[in-house]
Amino acid sequence: MSTTYKIAELAERSGFSSSALRYYEELGVLPRAGRTPAGYRLYDDSSLARLAFVSRAKQLGCTLDEITQLAAAWEGQRCEPIQSRLRELVNAKITDAHGRISELVAFTAQLEEAAAVMGSHTPEGPCDDDCGCTAPTRHAASRPTSVPFTTKPADAIEPPIACTLGTEDMPARLAEWQTVLASVVAREPIDGGIRLALSPNAPLSALAELASAEQACCTFFRFAITIDSRGVALEVRAAADAIDIVHGLFGNPHRRDHVTRPISAPC
Question: What does the pLDDT average to over 243-255?
Answer without folding.
Answer: 84
